[in-house]
Design a protein that fits this description.
- By secondary structure, this protein is an alpha/beta fold.
- The protein folds into two domains: 1-112 and 302-361, P-loop containing nucleotide triphosphate hydrolases (Rossmann fold); 126-300, RecF/RecN/SMC, N-terminal domain (Glutathione S-transferase Yfyf (Class Pi), Chain A, domain 2), CATH 1.20.1050.
- The protein is built from eleven helices and 15 strands.
- The strands form three sheets. Strands 2-1-4-5-6-7 form a six-stranded antiparallel sheet, with helices on one face.
- A hairpin with a 3-residue loop joins β5 and β6 (92-96).
- The model has no long low-confidence stretch (mean pLDDT 93).
Length: 361
């Protein structure tokens, strides 16, 4: 998968710019706060329909404007495609090959990308929300079924939580079993996808981590909870869990069990990475997960994704920089940095200099 051209109009600090990318390493260089990360963010948005940096799309619109537009031309194993997103204050319009899409699930995954930045330390050090977000964004790019199940699960979960906040307890207890059955169907689908994905990701992450650390450390991944492999059996177990937690949910006013509460246990040499690893170990573990995610896309999508490395090199020591460049040389990579000559060591690249939201010759 290769992005040929990216056009930004009133996106973040860009008025109107078009980027031409090569098949290999593309380096966005320039001083801080010039727009390098904004360009990388636009690529990720077109791949996932979401930003890793903000919660509300309106924040992507250039100050003083009413609409932002981002579009890309790419070549995939199925041929050429174009993707476009028009972002307004309270809505957005998504298009594939000039055709407007009514469902976000049809937009996600037409182009695939993996994004890594120093902020990805949250994946290791912060709470379960970050690791679930990682799973959701990654799996959704390769499985439309998962993306749809996730959206429907969230809608039913919101309705169940609203019911739990009510005061008519007899009515709630009478109604909850109906919601539980619906919730369990999509919850089971989500859990099945996550567990299969993690089974494939875990050995790849372990190998990537061994490569980056010269075999000095071992990284392991495990999913919380114990579930059967059959989706129907998972749903039956979840219904029992929802029922057992019903009184507690009434007291709390929200649903306390289900895949929206799941977590990944990440360990380094057998110790919980969240509580015991150093900043350097956390950075290497997060990078290993992202490199493993890249390999997952090769398998599931049949081609490598676009790898986005945002200000990563400055956070790595010299040996790991060289190992990373060696690891990604056969895929399209968009890398941002302030001083390319300090981190690339003569590697061939398409260098694009950015200043104040403009491409500089």
């Amino acid at each position: 998968m290769v992005i040929k051209k990216l056009t930004l109009v009133n996106f973040r600090n860009y008025e109107a710019e078009t980027f031409a990318f090569s098949e290999g390493l593309n380096v966005l260089t320039g001083r801080n706060a010039q727009g390098k990360t904004n360009c990388a963010e636009a690529v990720f948005y077109l791949c996932t329909g979401a930003s890793l940096r903000i919660r509300h799309d309106r924040q992507l619109i250039r100050r003083g404007e009413s609409c932002a537009r981002i579009s890309a031309e790419a070549h995939t194993r199925f041929g050429g495609i174009t993707l476009e997103a028009a972002i307004f204050e309270n809505k957005r319009e998504l298009c594939l090959n000039g055709n407007r899409l009514t469902r976000a699930a049809d937009f996600v995954g037409n182009m695939n990308s993996v994004f890594f930045s120093p902020g990805e330390l949250r994946l290791i050090q912060d709470g379960p929300d970050e690791r679930r977000r990682f799973l959701n964004l990654s799996i959704s790019q390769t499985s439309r079924e998962y993306c749809t199940a996730l959206a429907r699960y969230q809608r039913i979960l919101d309705q169940r939580n609203n019911l739990l906040k009510g005061r008519e307890v007899p009515l709630i207890l009478e109604t909850l079993p109906v919601w539980d059955e619906q919730l369990a169907v999509y919850a089971a689908r989500i859990i099945r996808h996550r567990r299969r994905y993690l089974r494939e990701l875990s050995p790849l992450a372990r190998d990537a981590h061994a490569y980056l650390t010269d075999g000095a450390e071992e990284l392991t991944l495990e999913m919380d909870g114990s579930y059967p492999d059959d989706e129907g059996e998972i749903a039956e177990k979840l219904i029992k869990q929802f029922s057992a937690a019903r009184e507690r949910d009434l007291r709390l006013g929200f649903t306390s069990v289900g895949p929206h509460r799941d977590d990944i246990k990440i360990s380094i040499d057998g110790a919980d990475a969240r509580g015991y690893c150093s900043q350097g170990q956390a950075r290497t573990a997060a990078l290993s997960l992202k490199l493993a995610e890249t390999e997952i896309f090769r398998t599931l999508a049949g081609e490598a994704p676009v790898l986005i490395l945002d200000d990563v090199m400055s956070e790595l020591d010299l040996p790991r920089r060289k190992k990373l460049l060696e690891r990604v040389r056969d895929i399209q990579c968009i890398l941002t940095c302030t001083h390319a000559e300090r981190v690339l060591y003569g590697a061939e690249c398409n260098k694009i200099r950015i200043k104040e939201g403009k491409i500089v010759s």
